[in-house]
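Usage

Read records sequentially. Each one opens with the input sequence:
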Amino acid sequence: MQATCPLWQNKQILENMDRTEPQRLHQANNFDALRLAAALAVLFSHQFPVTGTLPPSWMNVAMVGGVAVMAFFVISGYLVTISWFSQPRLWVFCAKRALRIWPALATVVLLAVLVLGAGFTTLPLHDYFRHPMTWDYLHNILLQVRFNLPGVFADNTYPNTVNGSLWTIPIEVSCYAVLAAAGALGLMRWRWVWACICVAYLLWFLSHMTVDLTGTMTHWWEFPAYFAFGSLIATFNRHFLQHRVRFAVIACIAALVAYALGFSYSALLLCLPAVLLAVGTASWPVISQAGRFGDVSYGVYLYAFPIQQSVRFLAPELGFSSSLAIVAVLTVLAGWLSWRLVEQPALRLKGYLR
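and closes with the structure output:
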């Protein structure tokens, strides 16, 4: 199933950018809106298999979720690279990433085991808590992905899957680990060195692993390519911010050429990062205020699938649109609660990192 990964970096990263840069991002930028749109796109793409609804013939549902995950990886690659350059200390970088990823992840996993699983399992409660699969599900906190809880959603249209969105998180964390290792080894001390590494990976991916050549989409190589492209742009962030429209136009022209030559997936990689970051680094009225009540996108991503499965379990007679509306409201509420009760308090601990 196509899903997205959580690449939700706090706006404070942008506030810590290099003060010597002649042009800096607006603190009220468009990234919150883009991340929320991507998270909702994942919810929408999952609604079809969860409800057993055939999409319209013109819609490639897998690509809706796929483009959303690519967008998340681009934004993440850009923002975490800026974070490293603003504070190039390994333990601080790792602590920031851990505070962003694990508190909310651990919470959704524990709630799945102790609340959702216990409430929806068809097993007697004492059998549920004695079942090895129940506690095996906690491996999700260690980034060892597990989808099933015993007796939970076994008769749903999309059966035996509690949270089908968690599988991209290990890929995301792997990208963080590579960037952290590069920083620790001094490869990011000179930006051109890191830029060459990113370009080398992109060229290798485009010449060996893109689905245009292989016929198979390998997410463990594809998503890091989008992360690398975002990181590459961040490496020359000052120039990008000064000329972002020009970069976006050039990227679109390159993509059109690739598409005309039959490389449609490669075309997306060539244009999406520059266009997405050109929009994200801008500050547009209304859109730039999307995060004024909190950055709910990570919570929306984490809670959407379990809520979709729960609604399907409780009200299987609901149609696609009506259940989608209910799921969207409940998921945004869960995302906001996750932000206020878990993520924001955890991120405040960043103030103690020196």
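Summary fields computed downstream for this record:
- Residues 12-347 form one domain.
- Confidence is low (pLDDT under 50) at residues 1-23.
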